[in-house]
Write a structure and sequence with these properties.
Helix content: 55-70%
Radius of gyration: 24 Å
Structural class: mainly alpha
Shape: elongated
Number of helices: 4
Strand order of the largest sheet: 1-2
């Protein structure tokens, strides 16, 4: 099968899927386009910020992992397990 035949076959498959009665096909196309552009924008901006923070993030992670050992004051209990301030700050600092 040539590349053109494969591409035509895929287009026919996508077209047949679009004709089916599914919840995704009932959503307006502009909403789908907007969500796709929003997703791409968020993904690209997140990757760029991770690239800029690549030097600082390991230091922040080390501080976050060390916090439960230094700050042991219990602030609450979940299922009989005490949650310390160090654990809360570790969860906050970890990306």
């Amino acid at each position: 099968m040539s590349k053109i035949d494969g591409a035509i076959s895929q287009l026919q498959f996508i077209d047949s899927m679009a004709k089916e009665d599914r919840w995704i096909n009932q959503i307006h196309p502009l909403i789908k386009l907007f969500l796709t552009v929003l997703y791409i924008g968020l993904t690209v901006s997140f990757r760029e910020s991770l690239h800029r923070l690549r030097i600082v993030l390991p230091i922040v992670c080390i501080v976050g992992v060390a916090n439960p050992f230094f700050d042991r004051a219990v602030v609450g209990h979940i299922g009989g397990l005490g949650i310390s301030c160090g654990v809360l700050s570790m969860i906050t600092l970890m990306p």
